[in-house]
């Protein structure tokens, strides 16, 4: 558990460092089921700045992987488990589902090209599709091998976080008519 806790802490520090360096204003930091939720004032950053803040956590994990490999190779420090956990955390956070960094990157990219309404709608659809796939995998795993409770909880987390995005997309659509 210690490698996971350190990898999560470094990931969130990456977001905070980038946010402060780009002049963003932090509104709230609260624990979330799979890490921390950092709420910041989006009006203080450009779309490019938001993309950089979103990518900074995964970049920090990637640097951690490189450092752990170098420490093992040159000094025989056995922190390969930490490197593996950091790599997995970076990879999972790049999945384009809304509460994850990849979901935020997807929204920023779509908003840049197509506008906010399309970005929220597409992001909500992608998150629901991914969440449903994880839910099916977890259900199958639970039924066949009595394991898979964490993916099941993760899919429920995706659905609950995505409800806000979908509400935003639907509400904006109704108010623009």
Protein architecture, described:
This protein has 177 residues and is mainly alpha-helical. The chain has two domains: 1-94, no CATH class; 96-177. The protein has a two-stranded antiparallel sheet. Helix 4 (101-114) runs antiparallel to helix 5 (116-145) and helix 5 (116-145) packs antiparallel against helix 6. Strand 1 (25-32) and strand 2 (35-41) form a beta hairpin. The model has no long low-confidence stretch (mean pLDDT 90). It is globular, with a radius of gyration of 18 Å. The chain contains six helices and two strands, in the order αββααααα.
Tags for this model:
2 strands, 177 residues, two-stranded antiparallel ribbon, mainly alpha, 2 domains, globular, 8% strand
Q: How is this structure best summarized?
A:
The chain has about 180 residues and is mostly helical.
Helix content: over 70%
Determine the mean pLDDT: 90
The separation of the N and C termini measures 50 Å
Written as H for each helix and E for each strand, in order along the chain, the element string is: HEEHHHHH
Q: What number of structural domains do the residues give?
A: 2
C-alpha Rg (nearest Å): 18 Å
Largest pleated sheet: 2 strands, antiparallel
Number of alpha- plus pi-helical segments? 6
Shape by Cα distribution: globular
Strand order of the largest sheet: 1-2
Assign the structural class, choosing from mainly alpha, mainly beta, alpha/beta, alpha+beta, or little secondary structure. Answer: mainly alpha
Low-confidence stretches: none
Q: How many β-strands, per DSSP?
A: 2
Q: In percent, how much strand structure appears in the residues?
A: 5-15%
